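Table S2 (text version). Query chain:
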Amino acid sequence: MKKLLSTVLFGVIIFFALEAACGEEYRKVTIRATVIVFQPEELQNRIIGWIEEHGGYFLLRSNEFLSLRLPTEAETGFRHYIENLDGEVTAIDIESEDLREEILNLRSGIKSREDILAKNIALFGRADVEATLGIEKELVLLLNEIESLKGRLNKLETERKYLFSEISFVFKRTSLPEKIPSSFDWINTLNLYRFKKEGLPHEK
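Corresponding structure-token output:
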């Protein structure tokens, strides 16, 4: 009876452990949006202020786009904020990728290599010269593999903890400029806006 109870209890623990591993904290979230605005710089400053208040930061910015990172737990609030911007949101796209399997495999790979590394280090001091050279080569190989795996894991850990977003800004003028600058002088003498609006004049 005790053996059966232990087996059932172990199964329950494994079940909840797997359920925890399947949670949203293993998602990689990317949000892209396009906004039509009159004053992109002013709107960008407000967006940056909002994300910094919620633990995020911007990566790059220009008049045309703003890229940023934000904690994944702020995803719902950020989506609501973007959808209700002063400008006209013409497009919003949300991508989600499950990183659970890759992250767990990397953690397992690091752990197994670290175990082998520890065993080789223990043997290193007791080995003869010839064996020492072989162990040393394996130690270097293991250290390089562990470093590479940890680099990939750190990247994925960042991607699951911080969503990535890129917002594109389309500048909307309140009025058309009087002239369209061109490197060709003869083009600068034409009223291109009239041509665009009325079409080319008919030949007589």
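Notes on Table S2: DSSP finds seven helices and five strands in the chain. The longest strand covers residues 27-37.
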